[in-house]
Design brief:
The chain has about 425 residues and is an all-alpha fold. The chain folds into 3 domains: about 100 residues, no CATH class; about 300 residues, no CATH class; about 30 residues. It is built from 15 helices and no strands. About 0% of the residues have low confidence.
Length: about 425
């Protein structure tokens, strides 16, 4: 069909998804159901007529006011709907018309040659992103938008958003991926599509996943103490908002919300040791399984046969991406907190990057983490120019970087490939028994 038909359909679909995102952003932070009650005016409570719910057009037809109480309706609603619709169209145009997008695992294997180059990248024939992966991408971008809006306003990322995305990422990649498909995450693929004799990456993914599940089990059984059991330290803007809520509740004779305790730098560093303990099993089992499956012939043969299936290497690729994405943020949180004596990042950011990794893979998730500060600088410059003085959480920066990496990871990977190949060789060769 002509591209215009797809574009029109995706614009309409994106506007409808944007309408749902408005519901998510409004209700989820308040613990309300996303299903009931139906759409209603937040001021008078009356249910909206179905034609008032038509994305973008409904708000314009009403003149930005409720049909019943005539109170203004925030312009954020049509903006979110329009932005989501334009994002759907933008990614379609870039991926299927401009042919900018993710590489195939086989193309990434070509970049791992001793002397990869941008010329080699340009010589590659652009691969077509299959529709299931494209749909995963636009759902992913929608989730990033919702998480960013919530994080920017409430300084939280509801865990349901990234974990739902992670489940979708694991499912789609397991069912769809093959080494010749753009956006696939199959591990241990050579330039000719054959699996290597020592599948170290898949071993790290399997061992790390088992170790993570073990940590979760130990935490659930009470053997691993949670950090900050009474709530994490609040940012200054959060503490000011909470203090205002307490005053308002006292004036109205209601039970005021609790103010989380203040921690000294020493206490904050002590809480980080609990999180370090949580990360030990995933790290230890990842290394142990990689060593065993490369140095013990019987296990190596068994693991080689187990990873001979595309769905297995795709699942492990998605899991490795999630583990690396979450690990990078979590380690940064721990080390930054130990150095500065105050929380460097929130655990919601680790959840978000876990989801990013399961959808995009380990390499793109890592690149997104290091690209995020550049988006932070752009937003900071905007705030300076507009004389806005407000703390902004890191989630929106990570989301912008992740949305950017979907399209532009390939040239970045080609540029970094020589250095990454050398580092990977010296890090992984001891595990495989190499020099």
């Amino acid at each position: 069909m002509p591209d215009a038909i797809y574009i029109a359909f995706l614009f309409a679909l994106g506007a409808c998804v944007g309408s749902f995102l408005n519901v998510v952003v409004w209700r989820l932070p308040q613990g309300e159901s996303l299903i009931t009650p139906p759409s209603h005016c937040p001021r008078c409570g009356k249910l909206l007529l179905w034609w008032d719910n038509i994305p973008i057009l409904g708000w314009i037809k009403l003149g930005g006011k409720c049909r019943f109480c005539k109170q203004p309706i925030s312009i954020r609603y049509p903006i979110v709907e329009a932005v989501t619709a334009l994002l759907f169209v933008f990614y379609y145009v870039m991926i299927y018309m401009v042919h900018v997008g993710p590489p195939t695992p086989q193309q990434m294997a070509q970049l791992s040659n001793p002397e990869p180059s941008l010329a080699m990248l340009h010589a590659m024939r652009p691969a077509i992103v299959p529709w299931p992966i494209f749909l995963l991408y636009i759902v992913f971008v929608s989730a990033l938008l919702a998480a960013s809006l919530i994080d920017a306003e409430f300084f939280i990322i509801p865990p349901g958003i990234p974990w739902l995305v992670a489940v979708l990422g694991l499912t789609v990649h397991t069912l769809v991926d093959h080494p010749w498909l753009a956006g696939a995450l199959n591990l241990e693929v050579t330039a000719h599509g054959m699996a290597p004799t020592q599948p170290i990456s898949s071993s790290l993914a399997a061992g790390g996943t088992v170790g993570f599940l073990l940590s979760v089990l130990l935490h659930w059984r009470g053997l691993f103490s949670p950090s900050f059991p009474d709530g994490e330290p609040m940012l200054e803007v959060e503490r000011e908002d909470r203090a205002a809520e307490i005053k308002q509740a006292k004036r109205e004779g209601r039970e005021p919300p609790k103010m989380p305790p203040e921690y000294t730098p020493r206490q904050i560093r002590a809480e980080m040791r609990k999180e370090m303990l949580f990360l030990l099993p995933p790290m230890a089992l990842a290394i142990a399984w990689a060593v065993l499956t490369t140095r013990v012939p019987a296990l190596a043969s068994l693991w080689h046969r187990a990873t001979a299936h595309d769905w297995v290497t795709a699942l492990l690729g998605s899991l490795l991406g999630g583990l690396i994405g979450g690990f990078v943020v979590w380690i940064t949180r721990i080390l930054g907190t130990l150095v500065w004596g105050r929380l460097a990042m929130g655990l919601g950011d680790a959840d978000l990057m876990f989801a990013v990794g399961t959808v995009l893979g380990a390499g793109p998730a890592t690149v997104a983490f290091f690209v995020a500060p550049f988006f932070g600088c752009l937003i900071a410059l905007y705030m300076i120019l507009t004389k806005t003085r407000r703390e902004v959480p890191y989630g929106p920066y990570l989301s912008l970087a992740s949305a950017f990496v979907i399209l532009f990871y390939t040239p970045i990977a080609a540029y970094l490939a020589p250095g990454v190949s050398v580092v990977a060789y010296y890090l992984l060769s001891p595990l495989s028994g190499g020099g």
